[in-house]
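Worked Example 4.2. Read the sequence first, then its structure tokens.
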Amino acid sequence: MSHRFVVIVFLAAALGLLMTAPAQADHLRLPPAAPLWMNLAAAAILYAHIGGGAIGLVCGWVALLARKGGALHRKAGNVFFAAMLVMSGIGGVIAPLLHDRVSTLAGFMTFYLIFTAWLTARRRGAVSVLEKLGLGIAITGAATSYLLAWLASQTHEHTLDGSPPQAFWVFATVTTIAAVGDLHLVLRGSIGGAQRIARHVWRMCFGLFVASGSLFLGQMQVFPVWLRHTPILYALALAPFAFLTFWMLKVLLSSTYRGHARRAAAIAT
């Protein structure tokens, strides 16, 4: 990995920590009587979560913009994978302690999507127990999302832990799509060609959206006041969807990827 790439990644992580750590610190504030080791542990968890998100955001965009299949794409993708697992894993474990069910759902489902996207890129043969386990997680996540959306709609404020039903419907929709794809994969027994690349792309892009949305929409208060009243933050947060649409159309409609699939099938036979 080039030194320039490493410097860029860690500068991005440092910037993310400086910008968002003060805003997030209240969520992990401990009682004044808490021992030193608990305060150090809380700080370490906070900075690991934010640092993972900052590194993931930078490396995700590098992977999107780099030549697909090239060395930079692979290196950035691997760092993105590790950083996002750190961010989402910490978020999924800590959020229940903060009574934040939508963040719990976001953390665990992002972890699942990123891991299965990476697994899809690595695996080319028959499905294993990991894909079957992923199907179970997706079904559980979808059912939980529908339940939480319903619970939010039944409250007097029409919110659950401060989140409206629409927040849960987003994950209900995504996890349902993921579950259908996992079921198709398990029943078919393998995946290749354009379908394999499309599965990898959309899951990685949604993980990138979680990172960008968490920063540009979830932490608007860290940006200048004048910037909060412009469409810029919304555009930055939603930008992964534009690339998701572009690459899904390119992968599924391009003769290049269909050609890869036909050549792979010919070799297999």
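Now turn to a second chain, presented in exactly the same format:
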Amino acid sequence: MNPTLEAILCNRQLIDAGGVIGLGLFALAAARIARESRSPGARLMAIGAELLLLARLYSLMAPHVLSTDVLLAIGALGNALTIGLPPLLLGFGLCGVVGGLWVHLRHLRGLALAESPRP
């Protein structure tokens, strides 16, 4: 196999960096839409995008931060939170993005109907 391709696929740093950069750009775009349109759906979409970014950063940082000593120190409840936090963030983030997009499109459709001339 090509050594460059093998380094990219085996080490995953480039793929992880691309994922974080992509989610960061997505969160920035959603925040810009929320600021310019002032619709509640756009705000919800921006919050969902930020939760997705936070979940990705958590999943990248957790193996380096959560050592065995830390896991023993935080106890059973802390261990349950470290296991349950990424799926919760991903679930609420995806729900926020999809729900926010749906509400934002309904808001835009309502604005278009309000501005259209009536016969």
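Notes for the reader: Residues 43 and 69 are 39 Å apart (CA to CA). Residues 3-115 form one domain.
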